[in-house]
Design goal:
150 residues; alpha+beta; 7-stranded mixed beta sheet; 4 helices; 7 strands
Length: 150
């Protein structure tokens, strides 16, 4: 599979509505399967917790197609969210972004960790194909980790 050329730009407060929408369409089915869907609750979540600093908007040819949020934690990079609009999924963008994060974690000597909804086996399979291992689970999530190669 040939990956589509993509870029990242720092998210700003003006990106809030886009981030809400990309997460609604990309993650909504999995959130609904895990917790039920409530538009008002989701908007409130982003109203309370949306902080553009540290997040990125994924672009293809200057068009916003997704969101990336990564946290640096002691000993690990944590992939909080990687969400692409459905029409941009399956084109290698997500895999390429995860590979970039793997390299970044390797440079830092850190692990790369994430949670994936149990209701999203396609994502879990993607991460496993990239070398992640399952380290645990909750009622709704599978916890995955890729240790640095020294």
């Amino acid at each position: 599979m040939t990956s589509v050329a993509w870029t990242l730009r720092s998210a700003t407060a003006a990106d809030r509505d886009f981030v809400v929408e990309v997460n609604r369409v990309a993650m909504g089915p999995y959130l609904e399967a895990a917790f039920g869907w409530d538009d008002a609750a989701q908007r409130a979540y982003f109203d309370e917790g949306f902080d553009a600093s540290g997040g990125d908007v994924i672009q293809v040819d200057c068009v916003d197609v997704g969101e990336l949020l990564v946290e640096e934690r002691p000993g690990e990079l944590f992939l909080v969210r990687l969400a692409l609009l459905p029409e941009w999924q399956g084109r290698g963008i997500g895999s390429a972004i995860v590979q970039m994060l793997v390299e970044r974690a390797r440079e830092l000597g850190s692990a790369l960790a994430l949670d994936v909804f149990k209701s999203n086996p396609r994502a879990a399979q993607l991460y496993e194909s990239l070398g992640f291992v399952r380290t645990g689970e909750s009622e709704t999530d599978v916890f995955m980790r890729l240790e640095p190669k020294l």
